[in-house]
Structures are given as C-alpha cells and as structure tokens.
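Let's inspect one such protein example.
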Amino acid sequence: MGPDRPIEGEDEDMIRVEGSVYRPGDPGYDAERDGFQLHGQHRPDVIVAAAGAADVRAAVEYAVERGLPVAVQASGHGLAETAEGGVLISTRAMDGVRVDPAAGTAWVEAGARWEKVIAEAGRHGLAPPSGSSPNVGAVGYTLGGGMGLLARQYGYAADHVRAFEVVTADGRARQVTPGDELFRALLGGGGNFGVVTGMEIGLLPVARLYGGGLYFDSTAEVLEAWRAWTETVPDELTSAIAMVPLPDAPVIPEPLRGRHVTHVRVAYTGDAESGERLVAPLRSAGEVLMERLGDMPYTESHTISDDPPHPHAYAGAGTLLTELDSAAAFAVAGPSAEVPTVLQVRHLGGALAKPSPAVIGHREARYVLHVVAGLDDPDTPGGPGAQDVEAVRAYQRRQMDALGGVGTFLNFHCGPATESEVAAAYDPDVYQDLRRLKATYDPANTFRLNHNIPPASA
C-alpha cells in the first residue's frame, strides 16, 4: 500500500499520500483500524494511514468531495461514534515530539502518545500535563480538555496549549493561536472542527513528585473518609479514588486477589516529608491492604493509577458533581452493584476552577465521577451482544442521573453520547457559540464521528 492507491478500484479515483491506504479485505486493514477500545471498532470504507499533514489534507479533501464522514484515530482510547463506512484517518505514524527546554514547550504530532512526551520532557526536568495513562494519544486527550495528574495545581491540559496546526473541512491547513476563535473552540471542543495535525503545548516545571496509592477493602466509609479529606488538602495535591473488583489471579498482588478494593491515588508536587504528613489521616479510613507511596520521578507517574495497559472492550460515562454523596456513589459501584463496575472519582477545584480561554464548562464542579464496565467483544461467540451493551450504558446513565451531576465530562465518556449529553459538557452560551463556529468551519458536519456538536441551522 503506497502513494496513489486506488480507493474504489478506478484509476481516476486516487488519493495521493506518502503513507498507506487500506480498504476492507486488504492486508493491514484490520491492524490499522484496531485501537485500545475493542468494542465497536471502526469499519470504514477507506483508511488513510497518514505520514504527515499533507496526507491528512488529501484524506479530508477526498472525503469532502464525496460527502463522506471522517473519523480520526491515534490510540483509540476515546472511541465515541463508530465509523460504518466513510474515511478513517489513522495518525499513529505521526508521532514526532520536539521539546524546547528554553521555552518550556513541546511540539507534539497528532499520533504521539503521552509516554513519548513524558520521556522527552523528562530529559530536561520537565513534565507535560498528562493523565493517568501514558498510552493515551496526547492530542485527542487535550482536545477533550485533559484532566491530568497535577490538574488541581496546573489546570486542564487545554489551558497550556500555545498553538494548533489543523486541517479544516475546506482542505486548508491552518495554524491557529490564542485570539483566534477556532483556537478557542479546539480547547475542549474535541475533534468537531477539523483534524489537528500537531500542537505546541507548555510543559510544567516538575521533575519529581510524591505519589502512589493506598488500597482498602471497598466500603462507603472509605469513600466518605476520602471525600472529607479532600476538603483539607492544598492545590499542590491532586487525588482520586477508585473502587475496583479484582479477580483471584496470579497477576494481582496477593493482598488484593479476589477482593473488591478501593484505591486512593495521590500526586503531590511538594516534598516527600510533607506528602507523608498530608496522607497520614487517610490511613485511619480502614485497614490498609497494601501501600505504594513514595518519591518518584515524573517519568514513573503512570504507576500511580496503574491503568490497564492492554486493549479491551468497555463502556463508560463521566459526570461532574458539585457535591459527592458517598453512599450513593458506593451503591453505583460497590460489591453489590447491579452491573460490575469500576468507579473513579477525581478531586477538582484549584486551578481547574479558574477561568481560562478553554471552552470547558462547569468549572464550579468539585468532583468528576467516572464509571467503566468491562464488555466482551460482541463479535466474539458468547459475547453479550448489542442489546446487553446498551443495557449497560442505560444503567450507567441512570446512575449518573441519580448522583445529581451538573454536566458531562466528555474525556471520560466511552462510547456514543446523546446530543443532550454533549451539550451538557458546556455552558449554554458557549455551546451555542460552538454550534455557530461548527456551521462556519464544518457546515456539512464532515467531522461528526465523535462527541458531535451539530452546526447551527441558518
């Protein structure tokens, strides 16, 4: 598969790229469409494995000329809408990272994952505003806002972007910077306005931190103890709590095997001695089954949450909360939950509550709750099938409603979102402005295979 690959078998219907082009049945088609999310994978008519921005332009022009929708995938963690037909632009080969230590910035191409940015920045004693998993694509994460390990001190990842290069539906490659209305729309507006081929992002003056976790048996009392503790900590400490059902398997540390555990996760940029003092009150929340806390380089920050590194099938939803009802949250994901669920609650506030150019809504929220349920691949014999998947999602939506959320956090929404759920991620006037900008830059809604913001009607 190389340049000038015929798309539909007609010599005049060519797409000229330096990368590769695949159609269903081609060797490499399935490998290129694979992502971290194994449920509802894309099945496009055409995959363009882009080697650079010029290939992205060619793919967008091809799609627009034929009225085809465009999906974009780097790591495939944030799969929202499945492409059934249309064009998939795979950016995984566009993984360049350049750090400017004097300016404290990094240029990050569309397919680069945080692990590469973390490693490059770490060589200079710097860190990106990355999240719990190093395997996530940096650009897609940032377009959704990006709530990182140090978010209470430094804000959203979107708050640190200096510039984007983006290909819009008219085939133009644009560089947009602060003051440009398109720049602002990209800071939390997701992939609705074009295909971002690279971004310049500010790095953080962080080389090390005190972090890790405490593990308890899951009880509502542990969750409530963490909630009360969050009211006492400084902005330099960002934490989360997760309730996780663990199998009785050799891969699980012996103290945790076969238990429903609560994992308190801590990232603190102060010194280790101060970190120990801050965390000490949590130990009285219950019997500590296992402890992993200590001083670490930021390059090891992925060990704090210890997110699953291997692709799997899952469905998830996220909601922003002004208050956390510990008993209600425990009922959603405790050992007796109707649907076996992993629940994570992150503590907000601090820099996350401050105004910024980004379009991220509900900055008054104090917590964000994320529920994830594992799924079997419905294409696998014995899997749950589409009806069961929808039942899981319906359960998650009911539980989110019961917890009194003030809005959706789309970075944590795994799978299709309704129009009202997308709208609920933004303040109402901001959402209407985003619809206006969508009508300006993508009136045909070419970029709709995402958490879609529809263009405003004329």
Residues 172 and 180 are 15 Å apart (CA to CA). Confidence is low (pLDDT under 50) at residues 1-12, 377-387.
